[in-house]
Structures are given as structure tokens and as C-alpha cells.
Specification:
Length: 507
């Protein structure tokens, strides 16, 4: 029989304080089935309650350097839970030595999928172009909800699992929100924060585990319920508000009046978080944008730079991989997107039009600052053109599916319950829409000098695979998380769970 130690087992193993969990032991009622992966910070297990339905549980040591980011992840995920391109949040909490989050179980991450493809060094154009479109779609969903991810890389995208007869094993989901940051703030959140900060601090003994657990949970549900209401049926917060203020005297108002009113309503509720002049380094060296190396505040365009580097790596090596002679940031500054996507082994990959597209994307991204809405549309068009040139359809097998007989694959696909056409297949105007377009942008004045050294970096500019996180960044303190404030069990509101997969992707 499995054992559940309410104080958390997580026996310390060795002098470094690494936590060791036994397969078969139970945490928060979930039995550990096997270890899926070990990330930069935590261990991820496949878990189950009933041996029928399986989930993923990520566990992080509370005592790790920089602190665990699990509460931040819970915070972000509960706000994104209505979207189908992020794993469903099930429950999260903490024990004496560690914090955990239970999520929808996903399939392999992109790095694993590549490793088990027919040519593990190089995905075909038909495969990487389709993956790139899906990754761009998931990333825009995150941005449209007011968050930047700040750690875009292949390990943080995975395909889903086939469940309920739904074929989600060909759908790419984005996860790992431990470094995410809001770039849009809800004005009431700021007011609440002010109010909260004027209240006396709780003493450390005032844990939420026991007495106040119910109160906290209901607060979370209420807060989430409100947010869901605001978002229902719309693309982010803004649209629903637009709808709700257009009731009186609608017929007499011009379209311009309506636009002005909806812009006013948006600005009454939300505002851009001001870019800080300096930040600590956030992300992973291999994929970080030049701004991340400069330690500037990261915006949507920075996630897209990381995405572009990640896509290049799907078919070739990045020039800064496996070298420690030159600083990574210097190589990034020298490399143009056109050069990165040009592959001597496959000189016919890019057409003249695609070369121009890459130059336009580079120019567009270089012109973006923290507040800018990047032109996702031209990036999508480039990937779409690669897809068309490689003569694949969305039903064609991906490279990791090609090991079997292609005929059989098509039959297998046909036999699966048909899914509604996902939105990245027919995105319409989706990539053009900016839900924050009418929000006032503060003036942007980037700093040119970095005050904080990048932690743990070799003098040679060595590439670091592991994500860098430090709790000294005020944004982390602000976004998150007094670790003491994590309730022992935070459950997703049932309406969130029910609705999260039912809603069609927003147009
Ligand atoms: N819901 C999930 N289902 C299946 N596998 C998962 C899930 N979440 C995470 N994993 C696996 O565990 C790995 C590490 O998870 P995650 O990225 O969340 O942790 P991390 O410690 O923040 O990692 P890193 O710092 O290396 O990015 C992922 O790359 C993925 O392979
Ligand atoms: Mg990760």
C-alpha cells in the first residue's frame, strides 16, 4: 500500500539537500508512477489517484537557491486556464520541504520529440514549419493574456496526450511559467496590493495550511470566477468589456464613439507595467534575446526572438551552440535571422520572397521595445510559406510519426474522433489582433548600462542550458510570492476545469 506523509517525505539525499522521492509513495493523494524528467529546478513525476487517470506533478525544493517558483506558476496558470494551449491546472500546494503543482499530463517535449525522429539532428521543413506556427500561436495566447514567458525553449513546449477520444497528441502546448511576468496590470490588483501592503504582515506562524485554508481557496475561486467572466467568449479581457458598455443608446453612437468608449473602458481597467531600467538576467542563454543579455525589461518581442532561435535549432545548429570562445551575446548581435535560417546543407530551402520576409521580421523585431505589439502576422506568413513549399498538410505525419507506414498513419488519423479545426490551421485575422492596442503606452527609455552582473556566468560567455533564476529580482518578489503564503492545497475552481477545454479558441 502506498503511504502519504502529510509533512512531505522528500527525504534529503546527500549534502546538497536534493530531495529524493520513492516511486509508489503518495503526495497529496497522488501516487508517484514514474519520473518523467528533471528540469532546471524541479523533478516531474507521472502521478495518479485511481490508476486510470494520470497527471504530471512537478516538485521543487523550497530550500533551493532563489526559492521555488511554484506559487508563481500556479498564479500564472490559473489566469491562463481557460486557454487550450496550456496544461490544465489541477492542484498545487506545499509541504515542509517542497512545493508541488499537479497538471494535465502532456506527452514529450519538443527536444524529446526531435530525439526520437527519423533524423534527430534536423527536422524536415514540413515538420518545423508546422510546429513553429503552433508555438507562435501558443505564445501569442500568453501575450494576449498580458504575460511574457521569458523562457521560451524546446523543453518548454510539449505535445498533448490523446484523451477522451480527442487527438491532442498533435497539439503543441506551452508550459513552465516559473519565469513569466505580467506586462499588463489590472488596476484593481494594484489597489488591492496597496491595501494589502498597508495591513500588518502575518506572522510566520500564521500558516494557511490549517485554519484559513478554506477561506483562501474560496478567495481564489472568486477571483478566478471574476476573471473568467471577464474573458468569456472574448479574446482577452478587453473585448467583453467593450460588449458590456455598449448597451445604452447604442444606435445613436458612431463606430468611432464606440471605439473611444471601449478604449476608455480598457484604460480604466488595465495599464502597462512600467519597464524597469535594469533587471537581473532571466531565461536560458542559448535562446535569450539580446535584450535579456543586456538585462533590460523583456517584452513580447523578446519571447519571439527566443522562438526564432528555437526554430532555427529545429533544423540546424545555432552558431553560439557548443562554443565558448566568444560571448553568446556578441554572436547574437552579429547574426541576422536571414543568416541563421540560411543552411548550406539545404540551399534551396528559402525562396527570394522568404529571404525578404526574414529581413522584414528582423527589422520589425529590432524596432520593438518592451511595450510594442510585434507583427506576429509576418512571422506566421513566413512559416506558412515554408509549410506550403514543403507540400505538407496539417494531416501529414510529423517526423516523429514517420517511423511506421505512412498509409497506416493516415488511416489511424482518420479513425480518431474528428477534432474541430484548430485555430492555427485557419487563423484568419488572429495573428493581427492586439487586445491591448488601445491601452496607453508609457514612454520607453531603455537603459544602456547594466548594474547587475549575470549570475553564474563564466568569463568566456559560456552557454548555460539551465534556467537562471534569482530571487533578488524585484519583479519576482512583486509577481510572486511569499513562500509562506502558499496554501497547502490550491485547487482549480471546478468551473475552470470544466470550461478549459470546451471553449473554442478565441478568434
Ligand atoms: N504537465 C507535464 N506533463 C508531462 N511532462 C511534463 C509536464 N510538465 C513538465 N514536464 C516535463 O518536465 C520537464 C521539466 O519541467 P519544467 O520545464 O516545468 O521544469 P523546470 O524545472 O522549470 O525546467 P527548466 O528550468 O529546465 O526549464 C519538461 O521539459 C517536460 O519534459
Ligand atoms: Mg522547463
Amino acid at each position: 500500500m502506498s503511504k502519504d506523509n502529510p509533512n512531505g517525505s522528500g527525504n534529503e539525499n546527500g549534502a546538497d539537500g536534493e530531495l529524493k522521492f520513492e516511486i509508489g509513495e503518495t503526495i497529496a493523494g497522488f501516487k508517484l508512477v514514474n519520473k518523467i524528467d528533471e528540469g532546471g529546478f524541479g523533478q516531474v513525476f507521472k502521478v495518479t489517484k485511481d490508476d486510470k487517470t494520470f497527471y504530471a506533478m512537478k516538485i521543487e525544493n523550497s530550500a533551493m537557491e532563489g526559492g521555488s517558483a511554484i506559487k508563481l506558476e500556479i498564479n500564472v496558470l490559473t489566469q491562463l486556464n481557460h486557454e487550450s494551449v496550456f496544461p490544465k491546472f489541477i492542484i498545487g500546494g506545499r509541504r515542509a520541504r517542497y512545493q508541488y503543482i499537479v497538471l494535465e499530463l502532456l506527452g514529450d517535449n519538443l527536444r524529446m520529440l526531435k530525439a526520437r525522429s527519423i533524423h534527430p539532428d534536423c527536422w524536415s521543413d514540413g515538420t518545423w514549419s508546422r510546429l513553429a506556427i503552433q508555438c507562435l500561436y501558443a505564445l501569442k495566447k500568453m501575450h494576449d493574456n498580458g504575460f511574457v514567458h521569458r523562457d521560451i525553449k524546446p523543453n518548454n513546449f510539449a505535445v498533448g496526450m490523446d484523451s477522451d477520444g480527442q487527438n491532442r497528441s498533435r497539439v503543441v502546448l506551452l508550459f513552465d511559467f516559473g519565469l513569466a511576468r505580467k506586462f499588463i496590470n489590472h488596476k484593481t490588483e494594484d489597489k488591492n496590493k496597496e491595501a494589502a501592503s498597508s495591513k500588518p504582515e502575518k506572522s510566520p506562524g500564521d500558516s494557511l495550511f490549517s485554519k484559513n485554508n478554506n477561506t483562501k481557496q474560496s478567495k481564489l475561486v472568486k477571483k478566478k470566477g471574476t476573471k473568467l467572466d471577464k474573458k468569456a467568449g472574448g479574446n482577452g479581457f478587453a473585448n467583453k468589456k467593450r460588449g458590456s458598455i455598449m448597451t445604452k443608446g447604442e444606435s445613436t453612437r458612431t463606430a468611432e464613439d464606440k471605439e473611444k468608449e471601449s478604449a476608455r473602458a480598457l484604460n480604466d481597467k488595465f495599464k502597462f507595467r512600467i519597464a524597469r531600467p535594469h533587471t537581473d538576467f532571466r531565461g536560458t542563454f542559448q535562446y535569450a534575446s539580446a535584450n535579456a543579455h543586456e538585462q533590460l525589461e523583456l517584452g513580447r518581442a523578446d519571447d519571439i526572438w527566443s522562438l526564432m532561435y528555437m526554430v532555427v535549432e529545429m533544423f540546424t545548429e545555432l552558431p553560439w551552440a557548443n562554443q565558448d570562445t566568444f560571448p553568446v551575446e556578441d554572436l547574437k548581435n552579429q547574426a541576422t535571422l536571414l543568416r541563421l535560417f540560411t543552411d548550406s546543407k539545404n540551399p534551396n530551402r528559402l525562396t527570394a520572397k522568404m529571404n525578404e520576409q526574414l529581413e522584414a521580421i528582423e527589422k520589425m523585431l529590432k524596432g520593438c521595445n518592451y511595450y510594442s505589439f510585434p507583427n506576429y502576422e509576418i512571422i506566421h506568413q513566413f512559416f506558412k510559406d515554408v509549410m506550403t513549399k514543403s507540400k505538407v498538410s496539417w494531416n501529414s505525419p510529423f517526423d516523429w510519426e514517420k517511423t511506421g507506414n505512412v498509409e497506416e498513419f493516415s488511416k489511424d488519423q482518420r479513425n480518431k474522433k474528428p477534432v474541430k479545426v484548430p485555430q492555427w490551421e485557419a487563423p484568419g485575422d488572429y495573428f493581427k489582433q492586439d487586445p491591448w492596442s488601445t491601452l496607453k503606452r508609457p514612454n520607453y527609455s531603455p537603459s544602456t548600462t547594466s548594474q547587475h552582473p549575470i549570475p553564474n556566468r563564466s568569463k568566456k560567455g559560456q552557454i548555460r542550458e539551465k534556467t537562471v533564476l534569482s530571487k533578488e529580482d524585484p519583479s519576482q518578489a512583486e509577481d510572486a510570492i511569499s513562500l509562506k503564503k502558499i496554501p497547502s492545497d490550491v485547487q482549480a475552481p471546478t468551473n475552470v476545469l470544466r470550461n478549459s477545454r470546451e471553449k473554442p479558441p478565441n478568434a
